[in-house]
Design a protein that fits this description.
With 117 residues, the chain is an all-alpha fold. The protein has six helices and no strands. Helix 2 packs antiparallel against helix 3.
Length: 117
């Protein structure tokens, strides 16, 4: 085997090793696009609900948070929905959403955030 052949085989082997370590790249699917759209819609609803709650429009805030909840069941949506429901006297619904929030509270959140909920 010549030096050129050995060099060639070494390069091929090294290239295959690198290809095997390269992250897989895939095209965005329609499912990914739908998920991105749902996430953006949930974020918009959450922001609108938060604004409505700050302005004292509890019924409107609840409606917006419920729509966000249908798209993304996350601890922060549950917390906001539960807090608004508590203000409206919907204690069973509030308890369910606040329980979900506490059960799914992120480990990176602060103790103060947890105490607030």
């Amino acid at each position: 085997m010549t030096n050129h052949t050995r060099t060639f085989l070494f390069c091929v082997a090294a290239g295959l090793t690198l290809i095997g370590r390269a992250p897989a790249v895939r095209a965005q699917t329609s499912e990914d696009a739908t998920l991105n759209d749902e996430n953006e819609r949930a974020r918009a609803l959450f922001r609108e609900g938060s604004e409505a709650a700050r302005e004292g429009h509890a019924e409107e805030a609840r409606s917006l948070f419920k729509q966000a909840w249908q798209l993304r069941k996350t601890y922060d949506v549950a917390a906001s929905l539960g807090q608004v429901e508590a203000k409206l006297g919907l204690h069973r619904d509030a308890a369910e959403h606040l329980h979900y929030c506490l059960k799914n509270f992120p480990p990176a959140a602060t103790k103060k955030e947890l105490e607030t909920i």
